[in-house]
Write a structure and sequence with these properties.
- It is a single chain.
- This protein is mainly alpha-helical.
- It is built from 13 helices and no strands.
- It is globular.
- The mean pLDDT is 93.
Length: 265
């Protein structure tokens, strides 16, 4: 059975920005879990981590394959409710949102919300994570008022928690993106600046990348193409150090090149 060492080893790889090593480690752990066909619990745990890995890496084909495998393990465990189920459901909902399956994501997030209302305190970190992801889902669905409600709730919860710096930075990036969509570039800049400052202690990673990308989008909207290209380049570099040159990295590099082309013209 997996113990705390599993998470310590995995976290060490991500902390070192060794995403390839993390994937190899998870795949080896999954193979080990398959050595006992009845070991559904370990397989569900490893698949849950792999799901988050492929979602972040932008490998949606692998993400969907893992999602289906995880659902099979949850059925085998007859896990349908409670905080443990909510942890899996939240991750599956996140993957669905990233893959554009927005109605399914919303259904799962609301199911998790009902479980959390019964099982955990209102100021729990998990409530912040749920509110943040609901906000992203409603933004993707075009319901910007609901998106702002949930993202603001997420930030309020995260600000009151110790050791929630990453959550504050990520939520500020999301609020910056929302403000861009709503046409308020001054508010967007304030959130983006806070996100970059909050995440700047990191030497790479998706949180810093997202914060820099938000700043780049604002600069591009304002016609400052040189600043946009610079921020997109830094965002791409931060992402590459964490997850290599696939997925979002290529998009960020493309955006940087588009900004450079706009500057040249």
């Amino acid at each position: 059975m997996l113990d705390q060492t599993f998470y310590q080893e995995l976290d060490a790889r991500y902390a070192a920005h060794d995403a390839a090593g993390a994937e190899t480690y998870l795949r080896a752990a999954l193979d080990e879990a398959w050595s006992d066909e009845r070991n559904h619990e370990d397989r569900a745990t490893v698949l849950n981590e792999l799901l988050g890995h492929y979602r972040t890496a932008g490998d949606f084909e692998a993400c969907d394959s893992v999602r289906k495998a995880l659902l099979r393990e949850l059925r085998a465990l007859d896990l349908k409710d409670g905080p443990v189920y909510a942890t899996f459901a939240l991750n599956i909902a996140n993957a669905c949102r990233a893959m554009g399956r927005l109605d399914e994501a919303e259904r799962l997030f609301l199911q998790v919300r009902d479980i959390y209302a019964r099982e955990i305190e209102p100021g729990d970190f998990r409530q912040a994570s749920l509110a943040n992801n609901l906000g992203l889902t409603y933004r993707a669905k075009g319901d910007l008022a609901s998106a702002r409600h949930y993202l603001t709730e997420a930030l309020t919860i995260a600000e009151a928690l110790p050791d929630a710096t990453a959550a504050v930075g990520a939520t500020c990036s999301n609020l910056a993106d929302l403000a861009i969509e709503q046409g308020d570039l001054d508010e967007a800049q304030a959130f983006a600046d806070r996100a970059v400052a909050t995440c700047s202690g990191d030497t790479g990673g998706v949180d810093l990348s997202a914060a820099l990308a938000a700043s780049a989008r604002i600069a591009y909207r304002r016609g400052d193409f040189a600043a946009a290209a610079d921020s997109y380049g830094k965002a791409a570099d931060a992402y590459r150090r964490a997850f290599g040159e696939g997925g979002a990295y290529a998009t960020l590099v493309g955006n940087r090149d588009a900004a450079l082309a706009a500057q040249a013209n």
